[in-house]
Amino acid sequence: MRYFMTFAYDGSKYKGYQKQPKGKTVQNEIEKALTTINGGEAVSIHASGRTDAGVHALNQKAHFDLDMKHITPEKLKDGLNSLIPKDIYIKHIEIVPDDFHARYNAKAKEYIYKINMGEYDPIEKDYVYQYNKKLDVAEIERALKYLEGTHNFKSFTKGDEDKEDYTRTIVQTNLIRNMKTLNKITLSFLGTGFMRYMVRNMVGTLIEIGEGKRKSEEIIDIIKAEDRTKAGKTANPEGLYLKDVLY
Amino acid sequence: MRYFMTFAYDGSKYKGYQKQPKGKTVQNEIEKALTTINGGEAVSIHASGRTDAGVHALNQKAHFDLDMKHITPEKLKDGLNSLIPKDIYIKHIEIVPDDFHARYNAKAKEYIYKINMGEYDPIEKDYVYQYNKKLDVAEIERALKYLEGTHNFKSFTKGDEDKEDYTRTIVQTNLIRNMKTLNKITLSFLGTGFMRYMVRNMVGTLIEIGEGKRKSEEIIDIIKAEDRTKAGKTANPEGLYLKDVLY
Q1: Which of A63, A70, A87, B166 is the most exposed, having the fewest neighbouring CB atoms within 10 Å of its CB?
Q2: Residues B114, B88 within the same domain
Q3: Residue A142 — φ and ψ, nearest 5°?
Q4: For chain A, how long is the longest CA-to-CA vector?
């Protein structure tokens, strides 16, 4: 039987989502718990994609196969939650057709990135990027619009990445300003797919635009260049959240 | 010279504010850094009061004596922040008269308590009490009003506390509901002074009222009883924040 689950996690104590031989990862923790439920026989989970160390997820998705006809998905969810660390939470489990794949069937993903332009906040240090200076928010908002559409995003990928196709579509971007403090902004990116470091490289470039080091229109040239060195720095992981995966 | 500082901290990794022979505390960390700045000679800080393990502070206040005429309070603040862990942050330092005392001169304190009535949130598990069920918010709001005023709060203190005077004044209370989710509420308490566990014992009682186990008017009887066993459980520390100290 194939199960499909939605889960959230605080990435601050993990070396990323994906299983690694060394270091605590989200996948490791969930697979360990599932293996226990499965009487010691290994269970592998297949997520919509990885998230890097320090990055959070509000609604990550994964599928796995398990022969558990005697327990309902709801009971399986409760059992799993009782076995995994408290900074991961399984929100929902359902049964899906055997050919459903959490990664290949994903149609779009939404990421958000939180930036604090106000005073350093020790309580949110692992959850909001502490930029702690003013940014030109209107200029960032203009730049965001140049990222929308179908482009070759090679300039925004991990430098040593070697892919056949760097074309992705960013369907929608948004900038939301917290109206209570005005000092916090959240950038959102809805797209058909994101390559490794792509969101953080876009955000790093947007921050340099907000600092006045670049103009918003430079986004056009950076995309055209298809060259990682033309874009800005990789923004810190702690501001990034995988918000949703659409199927 | 007497310095007076405002600081914030994430209490989740500390055994409370107050210095202890064993275990990491906020006071220990700041005193260690000040002692380093003072060339190895011990410096003691005197806060407005303690906070317990897991409790946070947005604007805790403390004074300390130091002979540092050659550096400005602003430079001292930067130096301190560079030496303390990143989950504590000194927001402001100023020079005050030698007879100023952060504890004795405090006129009022404000505490807030955050409760999540919605789904468990692994990202906020150390920052918002995960109650994760609906509460009767209107009944809690009514109960809050019975706490306002000058009362003997013995029923809400730590059971084994032996004080001469349990009379305190709660000047104002509030219940703020997050209008975006409706599932998060913040209770606030502004008062002339709070005894140990007092806010958490009031919140624990308010939660039982919100669960329908008690009526809001029972607050009157609980106060009258002057008996810890008449009030509710002590609410978890992670929802509690020392928001401000007024002088």
Answers
A1: A70
A2: no
A3: -65, -45
A4: 60
Give the pLDDT confidence of B163-222 residue by residue, as tens digits.
Answer: 789 999 999 999 999 877 789 999 999 999 999 999 999 999 999 999 999 999 999 999
Dihedral (C-alpha) B37, B42, B43, B46: value to the nearest 10 degrees? 150
The three-state secondary structure class of B194 is coil
**A147: part of which helix (H) or strand (E)?**
helix A137-147
The HSE-up count of residue B29 (CA atoms within 13 Å, CB side) is: 25
How many structural domains is chain A composed of?
2
CA distance B52 to A165: 54
- Is residue B102, in this structure, part of any structural domain at all? no
d(CA A145, CA B243): 39
Residue ranges making up the domain that contains A123: 108-246
Out of A96, A131, A153, pick the residue that ends a domain: A96
Q: Do B122 and A86 touch (CB under 8 A)?
A: yes
A158 in a structural domain: yes
* pTM (predicted TM-score): 0.93
Give the nearest partner residue to B122 out of A9, A119, A122, using CB atoms.
A9
In a domain, B165, yes or no: yes
**133-192 in chain B: CB under 8 A from chain A:** none
Residue at a domain's end among A63, A96, A129 = A96
- Residue B140 included in any domain: yes
